[in-house]
Structures are given as C-alpha cells and as structure tokens.
Amino acid sequence: MSAEPRINDRIRVPEVRLVGPSGEQVGIVPLAKALELAQEYDLDLVEVAANARPPVCKLMDYGKFKYESAMKAREARKNQAHTVIKEMKLRPKIDPHDYDTKKGHVVRFLKQGDKVKITIMFRGREQSRPELGYRLLQRLAEDVADLGFVESNPKQDGRNMIMVLGPHKKKTEAMAEARQAQEARKADAKANPGKSQNVAEAEDLPAEEPAEA
C-alpha cells in the first residue's frame, strides 16, 4: 500500500471533517464543498486521517508540504546518532605498554559515545587460567570507569572471554561536544592567524607543568 495520502479527486467519500489552511476547524462538509474551497484558496485537499469517521482532510499546499517534510527527514537523518560497537582484542598476558595502548583506544571509543566489546583471547595452556582474563577485564573496567560502565559482564565464549563496556555519555552528546570543540578551534584559528598548525594541534595535549625556579 502507498504511504502517500489521498488528495483532491482521489478522495472518495461523501463527506469529510475539514480543517482550514491555518488549522481552524471548518466542520463536517460534503466532499464537493471541500473541493470547491480548495479551488478557491488555490490549495490541495489532503486526507490527513483516513480512518476517522468521517475522514479528516486539510487544505494545504501539498507540494510545499512534501518538500518541507523531506527536508526535515533529511536533517533528522543527518543528526541521528548511531551507537557503534567497537571491538578490542587482548591477550591475558599482555605487556604493560600494549595494555596502555589498547586502553587508550578504549578511552577514545567511549569518549566518542561508542560501546566497546573487549575480547580476551586464550591460547594453549592459557585456557586453563580463565581467572587471568577475568582479572584483566576487571582492571580495564576500573581504569575507564569515569568514561564507561560494564554493560555485559565477562563471560566465557569458547577460547575467548568477552565483556562489553557502555559509554556514560550518549552518542548525541559526544557528537555535540566534538562539534563545539571543532568550532572553538576554528574561532581560535581566525583570531590567531599566525599560529602554526602544530601549535593548534598541540592544544589538545595536556599543558606542561611549569618549570621549577
């Protein structure tokens, strides 16, 4: 069935409940009268509630209405935030440097408002030591507790152990903050045109401690 409403001569009922172009209630009128009013206003008669008894019809510029509706839908899709599930794989005996690197990725994903699936991969004799993976997952969850929470507790899945972290911050909030930061950088670049790109990029890094006297 078509999602398009019936308009003008495609409406086939003896009478309709008519709504005027400004939203005013005209009342129940014969279909012929409603079509006559539509011609007088140079508008379309659009059936907006087909299941009502009698059906509700409104006088409007249907072409303009369709265009505005399409633009609103397009804008809504543009601003719609989809939560993405990222994945990070670790070994139970991961070395400290690799752990810090992996944790950094998890932090970045959570800041972006994405979920993170953490997979601990066991090999060989490691499979007999699931507590190693469990402790590692607990440690990671504690290290990023200010950014995310354990949405799915650690569980064994064959040779792997899996945990899912969810962000405290919603995706829409993360996107809004990212846009604000980008606009702030652009404004700063305009205010300080002589500043080098390297300096601008360094603004995202923590400030250095002042040297002791």
Q: Using DSSP, what is the number of strands?
A: 8
Which parts are unreliable, with pLDDT below 50 for 5 consecutive residues or more?
198-213
Helix content: 40-55%
> What's the alpha carbon Rg, rounded to whole Å?
30 Å
Order of helices and strands: EEHEEHEHEHEEHH
> Termini separation (Å)?
79 Å
Spatial ordering of strands, largest sheet:
2-1-4-3
Quickly count the helices.
Answer: 6
* Biggest beta sheet attributes: 4 strands, mixed
Basic shape? elongated
Residue-averaged pLDDT: 84
Q: Decide which structural class fits the backbone.
A: alpha/beta
Strand content: 15-25%
Explain the layout of strands and helices.
Layout: E1 15-19, E2 25-30, H1 31-41, E3 44-49, E4 56-60, H2 62-79, E5 85-90, H3 96-111, E6 115-121, H4 130-143, E7 148-157, E8 160-167, H5 171-191, H6 197-202
Parallel strand pairs: 1-4, 5-6
Antiparallel strand pairs: 1-2, 3-4, 6-8, 7-8
Give an account of the 3D structure:
It is a single chain. The protein is α/β, with parallel strands linked by helices. Helices cover 40% and strands 25% of the residues. The chain has a four-stranded mixed beta sheet. The protein has a four-stranded mixed beta sheet with strand order 5-6-8-7, covered by helices on one side. It starts with 14 loop residues before the first strand and ends in an 11-residue tail after the last helix. Mean pLDDT is 84; it is low at 198-213. Pfam families: IF3_C, IF3_N. Residues 170-213 are annotated as: Disordered. Residues 84-167 form the Translation initiation factor 3 C-terminal domain.
